[in-house]
Design a protein that fits this description.
Helices cover 22% and strands 27% of the residues. The chain has 4 helices and 10 strands, in the order αββββββββββααα. A 5-stranded antiparallel beta sheet has the order 1-2-9-4-7, with no helix packed on it. A 5-stranded antiparallel beta sheet has the order 6-5-8-3-10. Helix 3 crosses helix 4. The longest helix has 22 residues, at 2-23.
């Protein structure tokens, strides 16, 4: 019986450790001030900690479609281990950032200009929505499906989103469902529609020539 008792204790501790790991999932803590990429030789200076990619937005013509400009780990290697990243969201009139999730981070959106209709759905399928005005902030909890929509027929909107991860990740629901090769029958049954409708949705999301 002692063996079984010890085995049960080990299993319980392993489960507890697993739950703690899931609960604390996010960017790993680092044991140095910052992380320098291994392929970077010759030392670093202030340039390493500077991201100039957003300069292209200054005095630029506004986009005709919804546009995201990111400063995440992929674009800004100095963010590795720093648990932070940014995105600039540009919404021409009547455009949307389709429903999506960020599996590794909460999103804190700051609306700089214009108005936005925003919302998210929690794990009880409750929808929380708000109409934001310039100067408002809105938080999208980690991992939950959310969206932003500029319902203004004439004016654009501009927002900045901050993330608590250098690599928050984005899972776009339209693309994930209809542009990854999931079987038409699976989608039709799941969405309680027919294959023809699913194929029409897939065609609408296909890359334009």
């Amino acid at each position: 019986m002692a063996i079984f008792s010890r085995l049960f204790t080990l299993l319980a501790l392993s489960y507890f450790a697993f739950v703690v790991q899931i609960t604390m999932a996010g960017d790993a803590d680092i044991v140095s001030d910052f992380i320098v990429p291994s392929n970077l030789t010759g030392g670093i200076d202030g340039n390493f900690f500077t991201f100039t990619g957003m300069r292209a937005l200054v005095d630029a013509d506004p986009p005709t479609n919804f546009k995201v400009s990111k400063a995440s780990l992929a674009e800004f290697p100095a963010l590795n281990g720093q648990s932070v990243s940014y995105a600039v969201l540009q919404f021409p009139a009547m455009t949307t950032n389709p429903p999506h999730t960020h599996p590794r981070s909460t999103e804190l959106l700051f609306l700089l200009d214009g108005s936005l209709q925003v919302g998210f759905v929690d794990t009880t399928n409750t929808l929380f929505t708000q109409t934001l005005q310039s100067g408002d902030l809105f938080v999208f909890p980690k991992g939950l499906v959310h969206f932003q929509y500029n319902a203004d027929a004439k004016n654009p909107a501009l927002a900045i989103s901050a993330f608590g991860s250098a690599n928050a990740g984005t899972v776009s629901l339209p693309s994930t469902l209809f542009a990854t090769g999931i079987d038409d029958n699976v989608l039709a049954i799941s969405l309680k529609t027919d294959v023809a409708t699913i194929q029409a949705l897939k065609a609408g999301l296909a890359p334009k020539p």
